[in-house]
Amino acid sequence: MNPLLARLADGQCHSGEDLARELQISRAAIWKRIEALRALGLNVQARAGGGYQLERPFDGLDAERIRSQLGEKALPVEVRFQVDSTNACLQRERREHAPPRALLAEVQTAGRGRRGRPWISPPGAGLYLSMSWRFDCGLSGLSTLSLATGVAAARLLEAQGIEDLGLKWPNDLVCDQGKLGGCLIEVQGSAEGPCEAIVGIGINVRLDRNDSIDQAWTDLHRLGWQGDRNALAAGLIQNLADAFAALDRSGFESFADDWRRLDFLQGKTVRIEQSSRAPLEGRAAGIDELGRLLIDTATGRQAVGSGDVRVRAI
C-alpha cells in the first residue's frame, strides 16, 4: 500500500509533523503526497491544528491475506497500489509470467471496459482484478467465457447475501436497476487451442458520487454488504479459477441454468446498436449455444454476437 495511505488507513487524525517524522520526509512533501491522494479520489480532510484524516477508514488489499484463504495450490496473487490497467499489466508481462496469475490493484488510472470505455477505479472503492489463464479448448470453446465469468461472480455475491442480482448480456452484473460490475475478456491463440485469456473484472464496493459515470450504477455498500474486501477478493479468484477449469473441461453446460435464472434481459424489449449496421430492436429471448444473444424481431429471430454491440433495455 502507499506508505502515507497506510498511516491514514485507520481513519484517525494524524498530524503533518508526525507523518513527516515517520516517513522521514518534509512536511511540504507530506502536503504534496496528500494532494496526490486527493487527485486519485480519496477524501483526505485537513483539520486546523489537527492534521490529516480520511473521511472513513481504508480497507486495504493484502496479498498475503488473500493467498492464505486460497489454500496450498493457489495461483500466484499480486496486489499493486496503482496501475494503468490490470489487464494491460498482465498483457505487458505475459512473457515473464506464465498463466495462471491474478493481479489486483487499489487504483486504475486507465481502467477499461468494453469498446474502450473507461472504468472508474478510485482507491478502495471496488475490486479491480485481472486473471491470466491457459485454456486447452482453444478460441472455439471460449465464445461463452464472458458469460461463465459473470455466472462465477454472481454465485460469489449471492453467497455473500446479495439479492436480486442479474446478468446483462454480454458482461454486466446488475442489481437494483444499476450496474454493479463488469468484465473485459482478451484472448490470444488458435481456434483449436491452446490459447491464453486475460479476464478483467471490476465490482463496485463503495463508490462515492461520480458525475463522470454515464449510466445508472450501484455498489455492494448500498446493497447492505459489510464484508471484508480481502475475503471477497479471495472468493472471487477461487470462483473464477474453478469456473475457467470447468469451462475448459466441459463447456458452458454447468453454467447454463444459472445464466438463464439470472438473465436480466430475458423477455425485455431491447435495442442493439452496432457500428456497422442499423440498430436492431426486438425482444430478448436468451442465448444460443455460442453465447450469442437471441432477439425476436419483426422479421424473425436473430442471433447477435459480442464485440461492437451495445445493448440498452428500452
Report on the structure:
By secondary structure, this protein is α+β, with helices and mostly antiparallel strands. The chain folds into three domains: about 5-55, Winged helix-like DNA-binding domain superfamily/Winged helix DNA-binding domain (Arc Repressor Mutant, subunit A); about 65-260, BirA Bifunctional Protein, domain 2 (2-Layer Sandwich); about 270-314, SH3 type barrels (Roll), CATH 2.30.30.100. About 30% of the residues lie in helices and about 30% in strands. It is built from eight helices and 14 strands. The chain has helices at about 5-10, 15-25, 25-40, 65-70, 85-90, 145-160, 230-250, 255-260, and strands at about 45, 50-55, 75-85, 100-110, 125-135, 165-170, 170-175, 180-190, 195-205, 270-275, 275-285, 295, 300-305, 310-314. The strands form three sheets. A seven-stranded mixed β-sheet has the order 3-4-5-9-8-7-6, with helices on both faces. Strands 13-12-11-10-14 form a five-stranded antiparallel β-sheet, with no helix packed on it. A two-stranded antiparallel sheet has the order 1-2. A hairpin with a 2-residue loop joins β10 and β11. α2 (about 15-25) crosses α3, α6 (about 145-160) crosses α7 (about 230-250) and α6 crosses α8 (about 255-260). The protein is globular and about 70 Å long. The protein starts with a helix and ends with a strand. About 35% of the residues are buried. The mean pLDDT is about 90. This is Bifunctional ligase/repressor BirA. It comes from Wenzhouxiangella marina.
